[in-house]
Please model this.
Amino acid sequence: VSPTVVTFLVLYYVVVLAIGVWAMRRGAGEDLEGYLLGGRNVGPLVTALTLQSTSMSGYMFLGAGALSYSQGYWALWYAGGDVGGGVLNLSFIGRRMRKLSRIMGSLTCIEYLESRYPSPATRLIAAGLTVFLLSFYVLAQFIAGGKGMALVTGLPYPVALFIAVAIIIVYTFLGGYLAVAYTDFFQSLVMLVGVVWILVASVAHLGGLTRAHAAIAAIDPTLLSVWGKDLGHQGQWGIVLGAVLVFSIGYMGWPHVVTRHMAMKRPATARWAGAWATMWNLLFVPAPYVVGIMAIVILPHLEDPELAIFRVAQTLLPAAATGIVMAAIMAAIMSTADSLLLQTGSVASRDLYQRFVSPRATERQMVLVSRGLVLAIGVVGYVVALVQPPAVFDVVIFTTSVLGSAFVPAFFCAVWWRKANTPGAIASMIAGAVTAVGWEWAKLAESTTLHPMAAGILASTITLLAVSLLTAKARPVAPHILAAMDEAAKVRRIPRRMLAMADFALSPEADEIESFLGKEQR
Amino acid sequence: VTPTGALSCMRASIDEAGAIEIAGRAGTSPPPRAGRRLHYPYYRFLFRSTASTLLGESTSHVCCLVDARTGLAATSDPFDTVTLHPPGEDVLGPTLGEAEANALARRFVRHVIHARRRSLATPRIEPLDRGLVYKPFWVVAGGTASLLVDGVTGATLPLRGAAGPTLQTTRRS
Model:
């Protein structure tokens, strides 16, 4: 253990804490907190990078590196989907969903699903799946945090894991200062600097990409192909499709990602935020995969491929830089884990406990439910991560595949298909989740050459279409929902020159004023 | 019901000349010469939010505006008000009751605080002030399209149905 590495890691946390203290002190004098709560955006750059630091988890440093270390350039199929996923997500459901959720008065995505597909079963299934799967995803962050902490501090894994889980839980319980937008922004910059630094160092160490490729070819030329080690996935387009889909449209099934569409206020901010996020993604996303590939040559006999990026950092970088890279990794883990735990706690307390168990529950009771669940996830997660820790990559891919399979058709058809009805959506969520889980459980990907994500999406889409059409007469979509969908689909006719200045946040007032003027004329 | 008499209004920062200039910049052709000022109703609620955080107790004030015609809620920055006596025909009346608006505001503010604080802790929310306020909007007629100009922020949005000639009949100079 290098004291310099630990010092820089501690320094990183001191800076994060200092940002929080600065913001709170400034908040006391200038009501910065009121400013942040006042509906103001912190600007497209901060918005974008804040979202990125939450989206990019420990997977990027452990799972991505491990995949490319063992499968070579095949791993870039996953990276490709990840780079373009956000834009795809925003383009297909972003604007319409924002409008529809506003018309229906939904504040969370589970409320939105229940408003669009009215039935208590919609909420029960959507909330149940969310709580279960996000808890699973948190497990991956615990394992990543434990492994990282063990490597940095030299502590035994059980102790390091306990410390990592405890830090994440305490942070989630007691966090909540509004400067989180600024600390996330800082964390995302650290993540970017850390990963780019290690990428440059590893490529330079091998004398450039051409020499690195020659060295990899000497070890195993199939690692340079896009079909994986020993060309194991050659011609398996169903597997390739799934790999691309996982992080492209798979994100559409993430409740906390989809919620962001509902929160967007100004399209201009969203456009710029999208541009910044894409630029950040282009720099950040491929880097851990490429470092994993370089690690094949730098550290050819790694026992645990998930530690590839950590080990490369330790081997190539000066101690201070290693500390920064470690800080970047812990930043990715912390910012994702606390978001996921918060989302899970909220869904459990509001969408399940208050809705189905105790409708008159007080805020205090709901906080107790949230905290109890978070604590339970912490304890169970610690035990699982200790006794039989699954690979971070496997957990993340499994969770994303099931969430995407369950929710993507329901979210997509909610705004694009008028015939999508409640039985169709409920059946689709169940079919998607069951298929993706079953596919993984029975290891059908190998025999069918179809990725669980592709199989799940196919099943949930076909189910939604078939059940909606079969039950169209018995359970037609309510007229007020159709009217809301029509309104959400309307594109205001705006002369091209005016478009750049238009503020769509004024749409509700504009509609009312037009109606007022129209009545006056009559 | 159209309110008459003295109204509490947000202080406008855009006057008629400013609204016309904004419409001109937006490219209405021929350039507009006059606009009509309308007053749009919102319920304003001011809350004090107190939360325990990792860094100690954090208190902040949150202002929430609820559109008194559509029920849509949004948090807002503090703003000044002035008392005005606009003609009744230039005032849009509220269609939502204050009690309903209050419930919507509380729900929305809780949601915003939860989302932005990213914490399991529930902040205490106490009401400090509330009332009906009106926001000025300018409707400016252009040759090809009419423009709605926010009288406080200067934000614009073309009106869908009210093309130039239509607006000519409604505008006042």
User: Anything to note?
Assistant: The longest helix of chain A spans residues 319-357.
